[in-house]
Amino acid sequence: MKEYEVYSSLKVPKNSKIIVRLDGRAFHKLSSDLELEKPYDETFYNVIVKVCEDLFREFSPVFLYTFSDEISLLLENIPFEGRIEKINSIMASFTSSSFVMNYDATFKKPPAFDSRIIPINDEDILKYFKWRQDESWRNCVNSYGISYLKTKYSNNEANDKIKGMKLNEIHELLFQNGINLNDVETYKKRGIGIYRKDKKVEGFNKKENKNQISYRSYVYTDWELPIFSEDFFKNIGAIK
User: Fold this and answer.
1) CB under 8 Å to 140, separation ≥6 — which residues?
2) Of 97, 92, 84, nearest to 114 (Cα)?
3) Which of 15, 50, 68, 239 might form a disulfide with 122, Cβ 3.0–4.6 angstroms?
4) Domain containing 102 — which CATH number?
């Protein structure tokens, strides 16, 4: 009966890098159910980071990037022999399970993440993550904007007002009312990254009877990301 399985043999291109992007399903409703603090809920972000760290340990991406309820993993060593059905289904289920395990909450409905695969070459890696980081900034401006407007208007009126405003107009409105987005935490504006860094380890080589310096890699969660650049991705080994 295996021949009846749909797309079971569909695989990503060989010798390619891929990005797997995971998104929370209907998280606007989940946010309401959990009564998350607006515009940013610290508990939620701490949980998302724990989920991302679980993903990093399990699938060893070159780089992982997250903001809001979105997670992107850049993979060089493709799991499950590149089978798309397996990658999508296991990563989405793993992420959903990790979210529930790390969140100390009672859910009205089981949280779920969806998954999609984007084959990518080195030339487009910066372009992709710059696109998502720009979206993180838009999300930041809009989140602060709608939160401010809801202190002045009803929910429906606030939603109607923000729909007709450009980002620079929301930014200026906030500034004129004492909210300077330049002062908010970096992760709210630029997202959070996870990647490997090297640390210097000093030891003693008994065989050679001398001090010795070596370097070991460790997983680093970066809450202070810079604006993405080609140098950033070269430094973390994502591109050559």
Assistant:
1) 39, 181, 184, 188, 189
2) 92
3) 239
4) 3.30.70.3000
Q: Which of 66, 117, 67, 115 lies closest to 90, judged by CA?
A: 115
Domain membership flag for residue 31: yes
Q: Rounded CA gap, 51 and 103, in Å? A: 10
Query: Are the C-beta atoms of residues 12 and 18 closer than 8 Å to each other?
Result: yes
Domain that holds residue 113: 2-121+184-190
Mean pLDDT, all residues of the chain: 93
Whether residue 74 lies inside any domain: the answer is: yes
pTM of the predicted model, to two decimals? 0.92
- Assigned domain for 70 exists: yes
Contact call for residues 117 and 87 (beta carbons, < 8 A): yes
146 found inside a domain: no
